[in-house]
Amino acid sequence: MFRRVLIANRGEIAARVVRACRELDIETVVVHSEADAGAPWLASATVTVCLGPPPAARSYLDADAILQAAEQTGASAIHPGYGFLSENAVFSARCAQHGITFVGPGPAAIRRMGDKIGAKRTMAAANVPVIPGSLDPLQNAAHAEALADSVGYPVLLKATAGGGGKGMRRCDDAGDLQRAFAEASIEADKAFGNAELYLEKYLDGGRHIEFQILADAYGRVVHLGDRECSIQRSHQKLLEESPSPALDAEGRARLGGRAAAAAASFGYVNAGTLEFLRAADGRMYFMEMNTRLQVEHPVTEMVTGVDLVKAQLAIAAGEPLALTQSDVTFSGHAIEFRINAEDPDAGFRPDPGLVTSVVPPAVTLPSASVRWDAGVASGWRVPSHYDSLIGKVIVHAPTRGEAIAAGKEALGSLRIEGIKTTVPLHLRLLDDADFARGSYDVNHLGRPGLLAGAPAKA
Ligand code: MV4
Fold this sequence. Notes:
Low-confidence stretches: 454-458
Bound molecules: ligand MV4
Helix content: 25-40%
Distance between the termini: 57 Å
Largest sheet: 8 strands, antiparallel
Mean pLDDT: 96
Oligomer: single chain
Shape: globular
Structural class: alpha+beta
């Protein structure tokens, strides 16, 4: 195992990775920007290194500064967390060139899944169902129209280099498609430096369900079940749960097995997530693979008892997977609530500023538990330069109903003073009858009532 690991991230995930390292007796180097000097998650690091000014491009995305910090402090591995450099193939390759282990997949796997059409082709070849549409880039608008005619409208234009919902265009007829094609490719070129587009049949009213996998360097892959992530706004997830209320144990085992086999088919190594769209008719289709640890990984940890960050470190250190598929068991239900420094009653406007008091969440319900993954403490001024996630409340209980009750208790006891947060929105959601029944899709938060701050059922 590594003696010293550099953590190239900030906030709650930096704290989370430090915790795993400490439990493994690994020293930590936590890098930070000038805006994050004195941040609460830096207190438990062995060493801290200031990278540079607040903008991410000059700190958390500055590969040269991070590699230099690793060399100067004697760190032999870099954990990238999520976001920033976590899915950057060039950075993964540069780590290797410097003799530093990137805690994640190699550059080839990152590149392969970063190309969203290539990812679909890889999955289709491994018998994972993909959404009907193109498996090659669209040549021109006429090509797009021919494909749209064969799958039927509505269709969705997506950018090959996109992902996470960026640069998608829905087209309801040939006229829409003619108008959208050129615009979408120009936008994709501007946003991703790649104008290539692909097309899919648009599936309305779906659910976002994803599978966690772990793969070692010796070709062994296991899945750790699914996470339901349909509660989102503008492609920003707000609440995730495991297991999905829309999957039964048999469906979970079948698709999880396919996801693991698909990852093995191209030699994937480390933690990864396959995102699926569950269409209104119940069919599951692969959408994208994320080649990193996800924000919502704790719900998987709570239901499986597997520490995903420790597993990532062990895999990166060349250890074989310590568990086989039959060792992975699922127990109870977990829900994660993202606590953002935002005002949900003002269009989710970021609300950074001084936090004057933090009281962590607590639950008293028997057999329920709560976990508080935080990047915030009393006296900390949340900077405005980064995303607004300041912490995550994760509850676990034997059943979904008890987890919802535990969530109400946990969110009701959490106190964050000085800034606005997403806590009131979560409390409204937990009182929503459709949510309580597990009956929701990706459009759920868009319905009147929930976001507006009015009672869910007027
Ligand atoms: C879709 C879709 C409907 N049909 N693809 C959004 C994120 C990106 N991973 C893909 N996304 C979607 N792709 C087809 N063919 C609907 C979405 C979608 C969505 C997916 C997951 C979670 C939230 C979403 C919100 C709006 C649209």
